[in-house]
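Propose amino acids for all 484 sites.
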C-alpha cells in the first residue's frame, strides 16, 4: 500500500456564516467555542492518522500565511507541510487534479490521496480513522472511494449517494449520485436505508485518479498539467509551497469533481460511516454545538434577557440586552450586526452576496485584518483621518513602502520597534513616536520576542489601502497586488 497523503481543500467563502465568515477570512478560520478553528480540527484529524508524514493543502494564495499560522500552533510531530496556492477559486476538480499530479511527482503512482474539506466538523476521531482504513483498502484495489454518511434525518440540504453492489464488509459500489432532494424524497431515502449523505471526502490512488480523469475529464487534466508546468516552487524548513500560475489557471474549467468525474466513472465506491459529522453550514448548525438554557437560548458573550426564548446570540465584544424575542439568530461583530429568523439561516448568504454586489467592504474584511506580519484594526475613521491599532509579531516586518497621499504618525504602545524613515533607521521604545511624511519610504520591524503594539494615525486626502508602493517584502508578496 502506498504512502497516505492527506490533502486539505480550503476553498469557499462560507457566506451563510456572515458576518463572522468573510471572503478574506473564510469559514475554515472560524473559531469554535473550544478556541480551535475548523481548519485546525481538520489538520489534527489528518495528522493523527497512522503513517502520515506529509500533508498537502490546496488553498488561496491570500490566506496562505493565516493557514500556516494555524498549522504551526499544532504541528508538534513536525509533519512536512506542502501547499498548492491558487490565485483564485476554480472548484474541486482542478484542485484535486493538481493535487494528484503534484503528489504523483513527489510520492509515486501508488500514493493515496485523502481529500478532506477544511470546513467540516467530525466529532468521532476513532470512527474517522476506521473509515479511512476501510477506504484505503478499497482504494488500493483500484476504486475511487468516497465517504457516505449514514443519515440521521431527512435532510434536503445535502446531496446523496445511492449504494450499489457490495464490495466488502465495509464498502459498496456507488449506484448513482443524487442531487439535493425535496422533503418527500429525503424521507424516502431515510426510510429506505440505501442512501447516504455525500460528505465530499475521498480516498484515491493517484494513478487511478489520473487515469479516470484522462478518460472522463481530459480537458481538466490537460489544462491543470499545463498550469503546473508554469509554476514556481519554494522550499523552506519542513515546508514546500507551489504557486499556481494565474494566466494558465484561468483557462482551467470551473467544475466540481462530482460533475467532472465521479458521476461518470464506473470505478467509484463508498464507505458508509457515522462520524459525528457536521458541515457547519449555517448559524443553525453552529448553535447546535452549544447547550441551551432552560428557555432554549444559547449565547456567547454577556447578555441580559427578559422573556426571550429559543434564541442564539453571539456577541463577544458588546453587552446585548433583549426583550420579548423568540427563535432569532443575533450575531454581533465590531462592524456588522446580523439579525435573522432561526428558520431562515440558509438565506444569510443573500446578505453577503448583496454586499459584494455593492462593493461594500464588509463582505471582504473585518475591522481587524490579518497580515503575514500580524494584524491591524481600524479603530476610527472619518474625513481625512484613520486610526489603526497595529500588532506586529516577534521578528515580523512590514514591507519597505511608500504612500503618495497620506502621512502616518506611529506611537509605540508596547514592545520595541525598528523604524526605517527615508535614509534614517532607528529604534522606538514604548511611549515614543515618529512621523512619516507622504512620499517617504518607510518600514516597521519588530526585532523583539514579544508583540509590538502601536497606534497609527493616518492623515491625508486619500486613505485607501491601495495607496501603497511596495519596494521589498520578506513575505514575497507581489508589489502591485498586495497590501501592507
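Proposal:
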Amino acid at each position: 500500500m502506498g504512502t497516505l497523503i492527506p490533502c486539505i481543500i480550503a476553498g469557499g467563502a462560507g457566506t451563510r456564516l456572515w458576518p463572522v465568515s468573510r471572503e478574506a477570512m473564510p469559514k475554515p478560520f472560524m473559531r469554535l467555542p473550544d478556541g480551535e478553528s475548523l481548519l485546525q480540527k481538520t489538520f489534527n484529524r489528518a495528522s493523527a492518522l497512522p503513517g502520515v508524514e506529509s500533508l498537502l493543502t490546496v488553498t488561496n494564495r491570500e490566506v496562505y500565511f493565516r493557514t500556516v499560522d494555524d498549522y504551526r500552533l499544532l504541528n508538534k510531530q513536525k509533519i512536512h507541510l506542502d501547499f498548492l496556492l491558487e490565485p483564485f477559486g476554480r472548484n474541486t476538480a482542478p484542485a484535486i487534479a493538481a493535487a494528484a499530479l503534484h503528489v504523483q511527482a513527489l510520492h509515486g503512482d501508488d500514493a493515496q490521496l485523502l481529500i478532506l474539506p477544511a470546513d467540516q466538523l467530525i466529532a468521532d476521531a476513532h470512527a474517522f480513522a476506521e473509515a479511512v482504513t476501510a477506504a484505503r483498502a478499497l482504494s488500493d484495489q483500484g476504486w475511487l472511494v468516497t465517504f457516505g454518511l449514514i443519515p440521521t434525518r431527512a435532510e434536503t440540504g445535502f446531496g446523496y449517494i445511492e449504494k450499489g453492489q457490495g464490495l466488502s464488509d465495509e464498502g459498496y459500489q456507488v449506484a448513482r449520485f443524487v442531487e439535493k432532494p425535496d422533503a418527500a424524497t429525503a424521507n424516502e431515502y431515510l426510510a429506505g436505508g440505501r442512501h447516504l449523505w455525500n460528505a465530499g471526502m475521498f480516498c484515491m490512488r493517484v494513478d487511478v485518479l489520473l487515469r479516470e480523469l484522462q478518460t472522463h475529464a481530459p480537458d481538466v487534466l490537460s489544462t491543470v498539467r499545463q498550469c503546473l508546468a508554469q509554476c514556481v516552487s519554494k522550499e523552506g524548513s519542513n515546508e514546500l509551497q507551489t504557486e499556481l500560475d494565474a494566466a494558465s489557471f484561468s483557462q482551467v474549467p470551473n467544475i466540481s469533481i462530482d460533475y467532472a468525474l465521479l458521476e461518470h466513472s464506473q470505478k467509484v465506491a463508498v464507505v458508509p460511516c457515522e462520524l459525528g459529522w457536521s458541515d457547519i453550514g449555517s448559524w443553525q448548525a453552529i448553535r447546535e454545538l452549544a447547550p441551551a438554557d432552560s428557555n432554549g437560548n444559547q449565547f456567547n458573550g454577556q447578555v441580559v434577557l427578559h422573556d426571550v426564548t429559543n434564541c442564539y446570540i453571539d456577541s463577544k465584544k458588546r453587552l446585548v440586552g433583549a426583550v420579548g424575542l423568540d427563535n432569532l439568530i443575533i450575531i454581533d461583530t465590531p462592524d456588522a450586526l446580523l439579525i435573522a429568523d432561526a428558520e431562515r439561516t440558509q438565506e444569510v448568504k443573500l446578505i453577503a452576496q448583496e454586499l459584494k454586489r455593492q462593493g461594500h467592504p464588509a463582505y471582504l474584511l473585518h475591522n481587524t485584518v490579518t497580515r503575514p506580519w500580524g494584524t491591524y484594526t481600524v479603530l476610527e475613521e472619518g474625513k481625512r483621518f484613520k486610526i489603526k491599532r497595529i500588532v506586529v509579531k516577534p521578528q515580523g516586518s512590514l514591507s519597505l513602502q511608500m504612500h503618495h497621499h497620506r502621512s502616518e504618525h506611529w506611537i509605540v504602545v508596547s514592545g520595541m520597534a525598528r523604524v526605517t524613515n527615508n535614509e534614517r533607521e532607528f529604534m522606538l521604545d514604548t511611549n515614543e513616536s515618529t512621523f512619516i511624511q507622504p512620499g517617504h519610504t518607510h518600514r516597521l520591524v519588530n526585532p523583539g520576542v514579544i508583540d509590538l503594539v502601536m497606534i497609527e494615525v493616518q492623515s491625508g486626502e486619500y486613505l485607501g489601502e491601495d495607496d501603497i508602493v511596495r519596494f521589498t517584502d520578506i513575505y514575497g508578496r507581489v508589489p502591485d497586488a498586495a497590501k501592507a
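The first helix runs from residue 38 to 47. Residues 302 and 319 are 5 Å apart (CA to CA).
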